[in-house]
Amino acid sequence: MGLETASQTKPLSTLHEKASFDVADFPVPTGREEEWRFTPLSRLKGLHTGAAASGGVVVRVDAAPEVTVETVGRDDERLGRAYVPADRVSAQAYSSFEKATVITVPREAVASAPTVVTVTGSGDGAAYGHTLVRLEPMAEAVVVLEHQGSAVYADNVEFVVGEGATLKVVSLQEWDDDAVHVSHHHALLAKDATFRSFVVTLGGDLVRLSPSVSYEGPGGDADLTGLYFVDAGQHLEHRLLVDHSTPNCRSNVVYKGALQGEDAHAVWIGDVIIRVEAEGTDTYELNRNLLLTDGARADSVPNLEILTGEVAGAGHASASGRLDDEHIFYLQARGIPFEEARRLVIRGFFKQLLEKIELDELRQRVFAKVEAELEK
Amino acid sequence: MSDSSRVRPGSTLEIRDLHVAVDDKEILRGVNLTVRAGETHAIMGPNGSGKSTLAYAIAGHPKYTVTGGQVLLDGVDLLELSVDERARAGLFLAMQYPVEVPGVSVSNFLRSAVTAVRGEAPKLREFAKDLKSGMDALSIDAAFAQRNLNEGFSGGEKKRHEILQLELLKPKIAVLDETDSGLDVDALRVVSEGINRFRSTGETGVLLITHYTRILRYVKPDFVHVFAGGRIVEQGGPELADKLEAEGYEAYVKASA
Ligand SMILES: Nc1ncnc2c1ncn2[C@@H]1O[C@H](COP(=O)(O)OP(=O)(O)O)[C@@H](O)[C@H]1O
Ligand SMILES: [Mg+2]
Predict the structure, then answer these.
(1) C-alpha of residue B178 to centroid of ligand 2, in Å
(2) In sequence order, what are the residues at sequence separation of 6 or more whose Cβ sits closer than 8 angstroms to the Cβ of residue A258?
(3) CB pair distance less than 8 Å for B109 and A349
(4) Structural domains present in chain B
(5) A291-347 pLDDT, tens per residue?
(6) Which of A7, A259, A298, B83 has the fewest CB atoms within 10 Å, i.e. is most exposed?
C-alpha cells in the first residue's frame, strides 16, 4: 500500500502485507487468497496473469485553467512516490503502463472548474494506466475521473494532497456491460489536507476498485463516499483501506449500494487501521446494501483494527437487507402505488450520499443515472 | 347525530364478521361494524385486544391475514384491493406508530401522496398554500417540510403529521389508531381540532381507536364500542365512555377470556 516504504517493517495489520512495484513479488492469485476470494478471477480477462497491453483505452483531460496537465513517461520521478502496489494486478498495471497523466494544481491555486479525466475503452484488449494528481500546499481542486466504453483496464491513481490543500474527486465507473476494470486509488494527505472521494460504480461486468488513504501529518481529513447499483450478472467490488499512522486525523467512509437481478454481486471490504502512534484518530465506516431481488448477493466485511488506546472516535457498521415492508406499507397506505413507493424509498436510501456531491451539475447527472437504474 | 338511518351524502364502511390472524394466531374473531358518513365511532379497549390489528387489516398491511369476513367501502370489497388502491378508494389510516422513512422528505412524500389520491399532480402554488395552512393549523413548524419522513420526530410531531395528511388527503373514511397516545394537553387539543375540521363537512366517517377517554372530550363520538378479545363486546352512546372511565375494562376482559 505504499505505507511501508519508509520503514520497511512488516505492517501490523495482516490485511495488506505486501507492497512492491514488481509483479514477480506477487504470485498469480488462485482465488483462495483473502484479498482475492470474492473476485471471480475467470472474468478478469487475464489482468492477473499478465495480459499484454494492446492500448485499448484513450485518456482525455479537460483541465481547469489553473491546472497543468502533462503526459509523462515511466521514468518520471514523481510517479510511485505516494503509492506502492499492494496486489498483483496493481503491480501489473504499474509495470505495464506506457504513459502517465500528471495533473498539478499549483500552490495556493483554486481551480475555477472541475478537471475532467475521461478514460474511454475501445474494446481492443487489455490496457494499463497511471494517473497522478498533485495538489501543492493550500491548493483546491475538483477532479472527475470518468470511465466509459468497453475495456479490460487496470490502473493506479495517486492523489498527493499537500499541506492545507483540498482535493475533491469524483470517480464514475460507467463502463459498458462487458468491461473489466481493476483500479487502485491512493490518497496521501499532508498536514491539514482535506480529501473527498465520491465513487459511483454502475457499469461493467467486473469492477474492482480499491480506494486507500494514508496520512503524513496531523489534521488530515478524508471522506470516502461510494454508491453502486449492481444489475444481474455484474460483480462490483470496492475495497477500502484507511491507514491511520499519524495523530489527530479523521476518516469517514460511507458506501451504499443497491442490487437487483440474478447473480448481481457486490463486495465491500472496509479496512481501517489505527496504529499505536495515531492517537486522537476519529474514524467511522459504514456500508449498506439494499437487496432488491432474489438472486443478488452482497458481501460486506468491515475490519476496524485499533492499536492505540487514545482514539477520539472509532466505529463501523455494515448491514445488508431488503426494502423494509413497513416503509413501503406506509407510503402505499397514502395511495402511492407500489412501484413509486419503492422508487421513493430507494432514492431516499441514496439521498444523503448524493447530497455530498457539491457540484450541482454533477450531482444531477449522477442522480439521473441512479434514476435510470431504477427504471430498469 | 345519533339517528344514523337518516340518508346523508357520503360513504359507508361496513365491516362484516371480520376474522384476522397474525402468524397463524387468530386475533380478530368476528368484528361487525358499520361507519357511515357523518358518524364518529370510538373503539375502546385494553392493550392487546386487537384494535390495531383491526386498523391494519382494513388498510391491508401484509402481516395481517384475513381469514374470513368482508370490509366494504360503498359496496366495494376493500379486501380485494392493494394497500394503495384502498387509500385511493378513500380509506385513511392514521397509524399508532408512524414509521421513519430515511431520505424521503415530508414535502416530497405529501406531494406524491396527494398526487396519487387525487389522480393528478396538484398545482405547485396551490399545494404549497394548502400545505402551509395545514401546517399552521396544526402548529407544525415550516422547516418540518424539509425533514425526512417521521425521522427524529417527537411522538407529538408524528401524530400531528398524521392529521396533516388526513386533512390534505381528505379521505371518505378515516381510521385513527391511538392518535391521542403520547400527546400532551396542548398537542391533544391541536390534533383534536384537526380531526374536528375533517369531520365538520358531515360527509366523512371516523373510526377513532383509543385506549383512554380523554380525546373523547374534544372529539365527541356518536357511538362507543368496547373491544376485547378480538371482537366488539359492547356498544352504546357517548355515555358508555364515561362508564369505562369509571370502571375500566376489567369486566370485559374477564368476560372475553
Ligand atoms: N405484527 C404483529 N406480529 C405479531 N403479533 C401481533 C402483531 N400485531 C398484533 N399482534 C398480536 O395481536 C394481539 C393484538 O394486538 P394489537 O392489535 O396491537 O392490540 P391493541 O392495538 O388493541 O393494543 C396481541 O396479542 C399482539 O401481540
Ligand atoms: Mg394498538
Answers:
(1) 7
(2) A228, A229, A230, A289, A290, A292, A346, A349, A350, A373
(3) no
(4) 12-101+167-256 (3.40.50.300)
(5) 999 999 999 999 999 999 899 999 999 999 999 999 999 999 999 999 999 999 999
(6) A7
